[in-house]
Amino acid sequence: MNEFLEKIKSFFKDEESFFDAKQLLGQNWHNFVPQYFDKILETRTNSVFVLDREGNYTYVNAKGEEMAGKSAEEMLGQNIWNLFPVLKTLEFGTHLQEAIEEKKTFRSEETYFDGMGWYDMQVFPQENFTIIIATEVTHAKNAKDEFSQIITKNKTILNALPDSLYGIHRNGKTINHKEFPHFTGWDCKDKETNIRYSDISEIFPENILEEIRSILEQVIDLGETKTVEYSLHDSDGQKCFEARFTKTGDVDALAIIRNITERKKAEALKNEFISLVSHELRTPLTSIKGSIDLLLAGVAGEVSNQTKSLLNICRKNTQRLVRFVTDLLDIEALDSGNINFKFRTYSLKEILQTSVDGMRTFAEQYHVLLNFDSNFPQTTVYVDEDRLNHCITNLISNAVKYTPKFSEVTISVQSDDTKAKILIKDNGPGIDPNFAPRLFHRFAQGAPPKDKLVGGSGLGLSITKGFVEAMKGNIYFLSDDTGTVFTIELPIVKPGQIPAGFGQ
Questions:
Q1: Is beta strand 407-415 parallel, antiparallel or unpaired with respect to 419-425?
Q2: Which residue in 120, 126, 121, 119 sits closest to 104, CA to CA?
Q3: Three-state SS letters, 421-454
Q4: Hey, which residues does 474 pair with through a beta bridge?
Q5: Tens digits of per-residue pLDDT, 429-452?
Q6: Among positive and negative, which fits the CA dihedral 201, 203, 207, 212?
Q7: Were 391 and a residue from 3, 99, 464, 504 both cysteine, which residue would form a disulfide, CB within 3.0 to 4.6 Å?
Q8: What's the pLDDT score for residue 36?
């Protein structure tokens, strides 16, 4: 109204005339509103009500009729307090009455009216009339409540996890997801969200920061998942942690940090126990095996066929125990780094021929043929002969056990200028894809073939992997329902050459 008055002020001859017109127009403003103003109000999505100084309705737009559940004819001229007596019991009604009496504008956000929903109410009292504008916010209120519930639920779930969860930006900025589960992106404003950022230097120890930055680049740029272990010293002693990084966006990654102190202590105790038991068992088992061999050889006198049969059973199971103890000792030696390798340059063909020949009798027991393709160029490798033979015979043994009767296991070599690949292929059912990621784990064993009993400790492949990697090689496999191919990849050297990275 004031803006309208300013526009027509120049038409009055003096201030007194303008003041009289202003008073008159103020008292009858709603009667002077142009027709187009009514049309504009009808198109509004807000509910608009106008009351006179006694609280009677003088105007209601279509949206207001919808909100009130009454037509304009039913409302115009009626008193708001008589037409809607429930308002007197609501907090909004109290504030509305005060606002009209004191001519004071006020706003009531998220006001609930039974049967109508949630509204944002704005009240603009004037000298002779009051405008009330109501905006329905039911959907927004419900969405807000749902979002708040989701955030609360997520925060409860996150806080129940033992791990720390950090979002890390490429530039090193970090956000604690457990503290701020409503975090939506790095471009959100700190003041609006009360989000506090930190830096990777506040999370990880200084001695591994460069490694962490390198890992972040690989994870973000290549989409790889990386894991790193580190330790910290505090008042309670040394704490061990494992941090797993995975890509979450074009410029950031998620770091899942787990306290593995107790796990490390348990592993140390387990390894100590295994080491103690292995060393204590090895001597008596060797003695038992030797005594059985002597009895079978007749040193203590002739034994009956029935006795020999029983002694052979004892000998077979003793050998099995000796192999198991040897495997445990190898695992311990690999972990401690105390295993002794006797490296020399060898002809790969000779090592393979020895390994294959030594396994032929074993394969015959399973009615499996070993097919060694020795037609490959002379190849020299720098390895520990016994350890490599152990690896090859272990892979052949597994292949034989999983290959159907009256079929074959193929051993072949592929080479280039720098590497030789030993391929050992079976015709078995293939490795279960769900088990494949754990294949090289300790004590891990897949489902045995239906027609065979496959024993073992589950340590063979883990030891084989450790030996191959200690010889600067690599081991991997490809598998489908037609069979599995294990590949040992070793660097080729010239005869008598000692490659870089090996001691004398």
A1: antiparallel
A2: 126
A3: EEEEECCCCCCCCCCHHHCCCCCCCCCCCCCCCC
A4: 489
A5: 888 888 888 888 877 777 766 655
A6: negative
A7: 464
A8: 45
